């Protein structure tokens, strides 16, 4: 209402009211779905809330329990392992794909195809690979068997399970990440490549000397976003391994889920979630700092 | 700016107020004095039978309508707990023995002992032992509705080809040292890619086509579908007392011996290695002809005898161990929520569900064994009429059963014990130590 009247009335130019009005829908959403639950989560983490009984304040007890909970530390470790595997493989693959698209083909079809795995819901991806990788009935082991190799329990062997999950998610997300990087590469002025070519630089040299340095801010953003996303791995594991075998894929999110919705220890689960948020905040800050993400060399 | 902020605040408040109002708007007490009871269950196969009961109940009590909601097992308990937490739970729901303690201790279940006493319900009509599962500290939290026991399911075609006939399967023996006649049968049923069975000196354990036995390792703290049954046959007892014990005995060497025997079975190639096993359920593998034998529960009778199953599968009794033939018996009950606005009507419905009238209707469909002994006979007759032999489940139910643990902290104990058993089977930990360590963790929960 205020917004439609405002331009008609001559007055001191101050857009702040209007700005707030435009921000309001987002703010309401943010407040209702992020700020309020976060506050509630922090409060619950200080209680013994068990869903069926009223929460009682217990101070820092949940956090003290966390320190001595080897499953929690194991979950952090397992998550870290997954993040490293996933981020490295996904970023390298995405960079390669993006460079190929950038330097070789501008085909829209190819670009669209890269997005297909990303469009498939994660639960479907999980089920699909679970069947294909099955030790007994799966297609992949059938092929391996035909090549004379012994069947591998990709998702049932403790040493294979996590690399397999990381591989599945790399398959699902590399295309999307590649597209983000490709968009970043399009911002790099063409003449740089032309002059480099005139100076006799090869593709590899152009990649390391032009593409990578100038892509840095985008790469940093993509890394931060995928790192946070990677830490939140849940659905693929909930579908394929359920945290097993023997806790080999019990990542932090799955542990939170188990505590909250299997053991109904909401207070404890909230405490883990708060710790995870702090860890992610710190990691993001470090990363932004290291990659000088807010400054571009193009400017 | 101030006014906008206030407006935004109002909007927020509206949103916060409106949604819960909308959620609780559905009152179940209509103006004309009729009542609608919400009833939850998880088994889609049982839904038609209980709908039949609900219709019969409504015919006898026209002022009460029962609305049944069926939710798959995987979501059932989470949905229920969320509904309980939000104060909008079903009036009556199907309870399971390892899940119910947490609802009992948090005062979510109505004590029906006064109703049972008032209406002088005959508790001896039920399969012995079933009704006492639902009693804690003198309070009764449910009436038994059905039960299940375990048996072997075997591929008779495959065993027949190896010269094992049905009569031999009736009296198998087992012990953790040499596996008894059971292990002999498992060995014969294991066949490699050249068609040699497990007893053939040339048997190649690295290229097994059909495994003689499919063990279940994702089996929580009970091992109901595998190790628990064999451990019990070896004389293992989970607890100091059951139900409501407070000290577990997973460090019992009898359990370790059993797990070690399974490990040997795997080493010999008669069962799939843990890290090379399928993610597909054992029942599916058996149906696909990838295994010859496994332990199964009576709730799977219709799955294995479905006419579309190409393999010829039959149910045979569990092997007899040093401590005899032992099967867990597990029952379900119907519970009333303490927050139900219609406890009297809810009780009427629960009593009807546990009555011969309703259980006979369930029996006709032969999906489960009803808790009332007279109805059980009807199920057996219904199975026989269809040519299904279920004596392996019913014989053992008569005398050789034991209860699965009913204690607090059930959901927390499950992953601790399951991880220990799995790491022992993998060989990544010494069996005895892994179980001892798990047992300490489990018992620490009760301190």
TrEMBL record, chain A:
Domain ABC transmembrane type-1 per the UniProt entry, residue ranges: 72-287
Regions crossing the membrane: 18-36, 80-100, 112-132, 171-193, 214-234, 266-286
Pfam entry (one): BPD_transp_1
GO cellular component, one term: plasma membrane
Swiss-Prot/TrEMBL keywords: Cell membrane, Membrane, Transmembrane, Transmembrane helix, Transport
Subcellular location field: Cell membrane
Domain of life: Bacteria
InterPro entries found in the cross-reference section: ABC_transporter_permease (IPR051393), MetI-like (IPR000515), MetI-like_sf (IPR035906)
GO biological process, one term: transmembrane transport
PROSITE patterns found in the cross-reference section: ABC_TM1
Membrane topology: Multi-pass membrane protein
Cited PANTHER family: ABC TRANSPORTER PERMEASE PROTEIN, DIACETYLCHITOBIOSE UPTAKE SYSTEM PERMEASE PROTEIN NGCF
Family named by the database record: Belongs to the binding-protein-dependent transport system permease family.
Name of the featured protein: Carbohydrate ABC transporter membrane protein 1 (CUT1 family)
Organism this protein belongs to: Umezawaea tangerina
Upper lineage: Bacteria, Bacillati, Actinomycetota, Actinomycetes, Pseudonocardiales
TrEMBL record, chain B:
Superkingdom as given in the UniProt entry: Bacteria
Cellular localisation: Cell envelope
UniProt key word Mitochondrion: no
Signal peptide, first to last residue: 1-25
A Pfam family reported for this protein in Swiss-Prot or TrEMBL: SBP_bac_8
Keywords assigned by UniProt, alphabetized: Signal, Transport
InterPro entries referenced in this protein's UniProt entry, alphabetically: Bact_solute-bd_prot1, SBP
GO cellular component terms listed in the entry, alphabetical order: cell envelope
Family to which the UniProt record says this protein belongs: Belongs to the bacterial solute-binding protein 1 family.
Protein name: Carbohydrate ABC transporter substrate-binding protein (CUT1 family)
Species name: Umezawaea tangerina
């Amino acid at each position: 209402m205020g917004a439609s009247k405002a331009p008609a009335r001559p007055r001191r130019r101050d857009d702040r009211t209007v700005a707030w009005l435009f921000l309001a829908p987002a703010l309401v959403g943010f407040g209702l779905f992020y700020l309020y639950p976060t506050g509630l989560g922090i409060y619950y983490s200080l209680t013994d809330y068990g869903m069926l009984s009223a929460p009682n304040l217990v101070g820092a007890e949940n956090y003290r329990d966390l320190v001595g909970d080897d499953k929690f530390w194991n979950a952090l470790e397992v998550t870290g392992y997954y993040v490293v595997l996933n981020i490295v493989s996904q970023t390298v693959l995405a960079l390669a794909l993006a460079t190929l698209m950038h330097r070789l083909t501008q085909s829209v079809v190819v670009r669209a195809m890269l997005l297909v795995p990303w469009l498939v819901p994660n639960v479907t991806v999980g089920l699909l690979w679970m069947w294909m990788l099955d030790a007994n009935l799966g297609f992949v082991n059938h092929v391996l068997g035909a090549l004379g190799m012994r069947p591998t329990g990709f998702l049932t062997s403790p040493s294979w399970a996590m690399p397999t999950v990381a591989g599945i998610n790399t398959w699902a997300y590399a295309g999307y990440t590649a597209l983000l990087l490709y968009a970043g590469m399009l911002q790099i002025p063409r003449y740089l490549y032309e002059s480099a070519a005139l100076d006799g630089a090869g593709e590899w040299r152009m990649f390391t000397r032009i593409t990578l340095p100038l892509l840095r801010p985008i790469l940093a953003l993509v890394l931060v976003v995928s790192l946070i996303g990677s830490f939140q791995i849940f659905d693929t594991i909930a579908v394929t391994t359920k945290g097993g075998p023997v806790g080999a894929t019990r990542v932090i999110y799955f542990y939170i889920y188990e505590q909250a919705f299997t053991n109904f220890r909401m207070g404890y689960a909230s405490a883990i979630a708060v710790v995870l948020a702090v860890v992610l905040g710190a990691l993001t800050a470090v990363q932004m700092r290291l990659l000088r993400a807010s400054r571009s060399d193009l400017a | 700016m101030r006014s906008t902020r206030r407006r935004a605040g109002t909007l927020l408040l509206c949103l916060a107020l409106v949604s819960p109002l909308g959620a609780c708007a559905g009152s179940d007490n209509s103006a004309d004095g009729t009542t609608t009871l919400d009833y939850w269950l998880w088994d889609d196969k049982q839904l038609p039978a209980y709908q039949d009961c609900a219709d019969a109940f409504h015919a006898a009590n026209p002022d009460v309508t029962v609305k049944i909601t069926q939710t798959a097992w995987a979501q059932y308990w989470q949905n229920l707990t969320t509904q309980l937490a939000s104060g909008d739970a079903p009036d009556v729901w199907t309870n399971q023995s390892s899940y119910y303690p947490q609802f009992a201790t948090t005062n979510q279940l109505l004590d029906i002992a006064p109703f049972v006493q008032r209406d002088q319900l005959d508790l001896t009509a039920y399969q012995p032992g079933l009704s006492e599962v639902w009693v804690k500290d003198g309070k009764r939290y449910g009436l038994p509705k059905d039960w299940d026991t375990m048996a072997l399911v075997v591929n008779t075609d495959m065993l027949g080809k190896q010269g094992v006939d049905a009569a031999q399967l009736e009296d198998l023996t087992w012990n953790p040292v040499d596996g008894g006649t059971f292990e002999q049968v498992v060995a014969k049923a294991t066949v490699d890619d050249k068609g040699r069975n497990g007893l053939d000196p040339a048997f190649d354990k690295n290229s097994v086509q059909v495994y003689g036995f499919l063990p279940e390792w994702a089996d929580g703290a009970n091992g109901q579908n595998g190790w628990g049954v064999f451990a019990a046959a070896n004389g293992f007892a989970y607890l100091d007392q059951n139900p409501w014990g407070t000290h577990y005995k997973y460090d019992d060497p009898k359990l370790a011996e059993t797990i070690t025997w399974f490990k040997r079975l795997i080493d010999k190639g008669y069962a799939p290695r843990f890290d090379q096993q399928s993610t597909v359920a054992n029942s599916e593998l058996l149906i696909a002809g990838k295994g010859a034998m496994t332990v199964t529960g009576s709730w799977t009778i219709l799955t294995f005898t479905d006419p579309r199953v190409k393999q010829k599968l039959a149910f045979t009794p569990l092997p007899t161990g040093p401590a005899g033939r032992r099967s867990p018996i597990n029952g379900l009950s119907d519970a009333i929520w303490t927050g139900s606005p219609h406890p009297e009507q809810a009780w009427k419905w629960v009593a009807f569900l546990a009555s011969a009238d309703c259980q006979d209707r369930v029996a006709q469909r032969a999906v489960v064994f009803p808790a009332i002994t007279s109805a059980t006979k009807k199920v057996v007759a219904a199975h026989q009429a269809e040519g299904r032999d279920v004596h392996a489940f019913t014989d053992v139910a008569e005398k050789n059963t034991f209860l699965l643990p009913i204690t607090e902290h059930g959901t927390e104990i499950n992953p601790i014990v399951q991880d220990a058993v799995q790491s022992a089977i993998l060989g990544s930990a010494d069996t005895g130590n892994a179980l001892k360590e798990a047992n300490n963790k489990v018992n620490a929960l009760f301190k």
